[in-house]
User: Which sequence fits this backbone?
């Protein structure tokens, strides 16, 4: 039954993805009205998060960021659906990975690479980053994900994310999978969205992030130190609707020289700086009191 529902959802999304982008954006504008004005999806929470992060901004500025967030939030959903219809060539026109030569250099020199990013811009399109790296038999391009509770939608998003040479690794199995890659003598480039809610029982630390003392996970840094992987941050810029750039920035090429806390703090500072440029493109709908993004 689950497989049938999953297939039905997948086919429905394929039909939706066949619509031109400009039509999807019209639908997105309508969705914005209902999500923001009618349903009022997490309006109180989003306002509180933005106000706390920017205590010096006037109410008019807060409202501009808030509305911009909901517009972008709806766009992100339909852009993600559109991935089902994109060819590799078109995906590369819409998501450009700048400075990807840095990743290529390290992989060519037998170094694993961890890309750290956040829920900024269109993070789902980041799953296409592997398109910018030479595909070789001993290389694996992947991303870490948290399985959705709804199995049908979980399977749908796995299909979307894995369309462009990326392999999904459930976050609870990542250490086991990395050990397996090492045994198979494969080099990896894996993307981590490391601003997610820290799960119970994993290592965390507190940092000052967006004007709030925030608990964040240190697991990505732990993996880097364990494997000796180079750690980079991907700075996302939204050029305009449906066009994004990701710029690879080196955090450290020798994680053994830094503590897990130092690596994590460098990442959080880069993410914060990224958000400050255009705050509306960040995912403000997380419950920061409970989730501590």
Assistant:
């Amino acid at each position: 039954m689950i497989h049938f529902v999953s297939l039905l959802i997948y086919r429905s999304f394929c039909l939706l993805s066949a619509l031109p982008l400009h039509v999807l954006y019209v639908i997105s504008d309508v969705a914005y009205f209902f999500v923001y004005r009618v349903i009022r999806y997490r309006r109180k929470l989003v306002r509180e998060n933005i106000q706390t992060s920017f205590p010096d901004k006037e109410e008019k500025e807060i409202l501009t960021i808030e509305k911009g967030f909901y517009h972008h939030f709806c766009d992100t959903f339909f852009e993600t659906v559109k991935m089902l219809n994109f060819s590799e060539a078109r995906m590369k026109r819409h998501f450009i990975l700048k400075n990807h030569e840095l990743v290529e250099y390290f992989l060519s020199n037998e170094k694993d690479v961890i890309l750290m990013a956040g829920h900024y811009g269109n993070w789902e399109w980041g799953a296409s980053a592997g398109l910018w790296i030479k595909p070789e038999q001993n290389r694996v391009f992947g991303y870490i994900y948290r399985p959705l509770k709804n199995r049908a939608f979980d399977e749908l998003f796995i299909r979307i994310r894995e369309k462009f040479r990326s392999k999904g690794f459930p976050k609870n199995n990542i250490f086991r999978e990395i050990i397996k890659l090492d045994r198979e003598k494969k080099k990896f480039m894996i993307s981590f969205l490391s601003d997610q809610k820290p799960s119970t029982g994993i290592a965390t630390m507190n940092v000052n992030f967006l004007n709030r003392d925030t608990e964040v996970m240190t697991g990505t840094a732990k993996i880097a130190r364990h494997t000796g992987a180079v750690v980079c941050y991907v700075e996302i810029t939204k050029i305009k609707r449906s066009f994004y750039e990701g710029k690879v920035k080196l955090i450290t090429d020798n994680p053994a020289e830094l503590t897990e806390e130092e690596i994590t703090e460098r990442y959080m500072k880069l993410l914060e700086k990224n958000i400050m440029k255009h705050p509306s493109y960040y995912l403000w709908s997380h419950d920061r009191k409970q989730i501590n993004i």
User: Anything to note?
Assistant: The chain has one domain: 2-288. The CA atoms of residues 87 and 164 lie 9 Å apart. The radius of gyration is 19 Å.
